Amino acid sequence: MKRLILSIAVAVVLLTSYGVSPRAGSVGPGVGNIPQGTQTDDFFRDSFAANHVTNVFVTTQQVSCYTPEVPYTVSNGPVDWYSGETLCNGAATTGEDLGPYATQQGSNAGFPAVAPVLVNNHSESDIQVDPTNSRHIIGSTKWFSSAEGYNHILGFYESWDGGKTWPVQGHIPGYEGWTDNTDPVGAFDGFGNYYELILPYQFAYKADGSMQFNTGQEPNPSVSNEAISVAVHPYGATSAREWITTHNGQPDILFATNAGFGQEPDKQWMAIDNNPASPFYNTIYAMWVNFNGSGSKPFYSTAKALPDGTHTDWTTPLLLPVLDSKQNNTDLLPHVAPSGVVWTTVDQFPGSKGKCCVTHTVDFSIDGGQTWRGPLVISSKIQTPPFPGPGYSNTTFRDGIAITFGVGRQLVAGHYPLYAAWEDFSTGFDNILLSASFDDGQTWTLPIQVNDNAQPNTDEFQPNLATAADGTVSVNFYDRRLRCPAAGTTEAVAAGLSRDTVNPNYAGSLPPYGAANYCVNAAIQFYRADLTPIGHNIRLTAHTWDAQLNGPHPGTASNNDYTFIGDYFGNAVAGSTNYSTFVSTYDDGSNPQHYQQQVVATIPIP
Judging by DSSP bridges, how do beta strands 226-233 and 253-257 pair with one another? Predict the structure, then answer.
């Protein structure tokens, strides 16, 4: 989710917040407590077909191009299939505006780029279902013009037939005058308008390819250094260009900074109360964190969605309650209960380098976000993978948001249940744990382990939780239990393993044919409302893929020991169908360059 460094101050905060810390004194509570028992790798491999999962490679269906504010032409190829920045040359099929754009008109000399370039990679994602039409689905993801330069804005893909086809897609307009737009997250209001909460920010490249954020040296002095902003795809829109990106005649910005070092908004998230029976129907809850050099502070603002895709003015940003304002407080994941009560997680990380561990808490509001109560502790002393560097053995991609949260839609003992799942790295390998509260966050059940791999020395990570109308709970996550395809197999060729030949974090031989705890799948586990498991983990990916291929570089193009597949991925429910959107570099016939593409998996809820 987070770009690597926006200033020296932010770098210090991140390293002290997420940095390598000594192991907790013992294995975390819940690790090894697997109610459904373990399953063999073969059983997991076959569960894709056995459970009628479908995969659609969404972002290979159209060709998208845009004009970036800052070009970056370095290529790391042919290793790992990198190809650098590629001119569009008329290849676009999306119908989107190819630029230049209104927000780029005040750019300094040399900016923006002179021509549109191809969008190649697509990592990190969110997916949402229209409450007025369960067959209308929108996903959003980072839309890369250069993986080597970590150069991207946000893009979207839209289906009107329950995820079978995705004819409308392209970049999300309105904020192209910033270098990057990042952190895809969206929500539908009760009228069917889709809101995207965006983090646009500026940087330029130094001669060595690293990023500089010096105040006064921005590529585009006509826009702020960084902002939290909104774009709305109104109900009934049928093209990639149809977005509302202004409010009162200006870009729809909730928070902006030109302060340079030491004021850095990040990790934005949102929820909209789209329940017509709620007293706070169509209230928009926007949240973000500001890294200010002395910890990170969680903010919120609200507005009311209107039928035409516009909204009332945003309220003045205010702070959420936290356990300790001197610590780093982040990972805000708001969700609204059917009663109208809005809940959000707030994670607290220690403020001193090397200390262990994270505490997960929740805040809540019963009056539409006017006042907030909490925090209530979900769990504490949780060991998470190292950040920002590679969190796992063997590969170079970093970890991201280590918690997910949801609110049940059916009453249990007179309360709407709260559910939280998180990563636990206390064994030196990552596991996913899950807990519930059936008394409005006052107490939480003993954690259970979600992943049911029989071999414990593998990593499962980046959980995302969703709840269905009938009370079913789903937790999806990335999974490394299956070995990479063997040399000489059709699967190894289609996985593109032959060019995975440079990996400073792997001690084995390359390419990684047959490598353990290396290649990636996505998986999901279903539960009843009381957390009784429904069967075993189910494989969501038809084919195992290699995360080393085309991995964007959050640092510099030459920094091969730190890459990116996203900090999270999407999970949503419509009726009796569960939707996930996640990365794959596999070539299903539509991805010969092994770019990071977004796959949408559908599965009937058991």
Answer: antiparallel
Range of the domain at 462: 44-60+383-606
pLDDT tens-digit series, residues 332-344:
999 999 999 999 9
Same domain? For 447 and 351 the reply is no
Whether 252 and 288 map to the same domain: the answer is no
Question: Which residues touch 158 (CB under 8 Å, ≥6 apart)?
Answer: 136, 137, 138, 139, 166, 167, 168, 169, 233
Residue 370, classified by CB atoms within 10 Å of its CB into exposed (0-12), middle (13-18) or buried (19+), is: exposed
C-alpha angle with apex 150: 148 to 152, nearest 5 degrees?
125
What CATH code is carried by the domain that includes residue 10?
A: 2.120.10.10
Q: Six-digit token pair at 255?
A: 């928070």
Burial of 443 (0-12, 13-18, 19+ CB in 10 A): exposed
Residues 344 and 415 in one domain: no
Question: ω before 219 within 30° of 0 (cis)?
Answer: no
54-57 vs 65-66, strand pairing mode? unpaired
Give the angle subtended at the CA of 389 by the CAs of 22 and 148, to the nearest 5°.
Answer: 180
- Residue labelled with tokens 């373990």: 38
**Local structure of 392: helix, strand or coil:** coil
Counting the structural domains of the chain, the total is 3
Q: Is 491 helix (H, G, I), strand (E, B) or coil?
A: helix
Task: List, for residues 63-107, the tens digit of each pLDDT value.
Answer: 999 999 999 999 999 999 999 999 999 999 999 999 999 999 999
Query: CA angle, 370 as apex, 365 and 374 as ends, to 5°?
Result: 35
DSSP states of 220-271 as a string? -TTS-SEEEEEEEE-TT--STT--B-EETTEE-EEEEE---TT-EEEEEEEE
Say if pTM beats, i.e. exceeds, 0.90. Answer: yes
